[in-house]
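User: quick one, fold this
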Amino acid sequence: MNVKSFLIAVALLAGATCQAQTQEKVLKGSQVTESALIEALTIEGPEAAGGATRGFRPAAKGDAKAPKAGPGKANLLITFATNSSELTGDSQTSLNALAKALQSDALAGFTFRVEGHSDARGDPAHNMELSQQRAESVAAYLVKTGILPERLKAVGKASSEPLNLTRIDAPENRRVTIVTTR
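Assistant:
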């Protein structure tokens, strides 16, 4: 392989990687529904542990009512006041749908990581602190709606995992991601 062919192959691979990262779906507005979140966050159920289940029964494999296992991850466009961790009204509406999904029978046996993301503008240390505060703000809101705090872990990611590499200030880079952890 000559140098020109090698450089073309590298460029094509880099382009495919960028395109794959920007194709990850971000749920926003009316797309944030209880059913869409259950579908995205459902993973293969936790193994039945011995002892009491506190009133819920994880769906068994092959159970007709059990949702199909999804990616275990949902990117949500949760908006905040500028340079703040204060949730907007639109975000609270989305988080109410998330709370209903987390309280569903399908997700009752799982725990979740709430990841705050920021774009790459500004000071990296400030972005890390702000993304952590935003993740904590979302987790605190969910706890107020009845989600047990031990089911949630808030993590700030700052700008380490952008979805849109071509526009650093893109709204999808400023998001909250909910990840099913078990």
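User: anything notable?
Assistant: The chain has one domain: 21-44+64-180.
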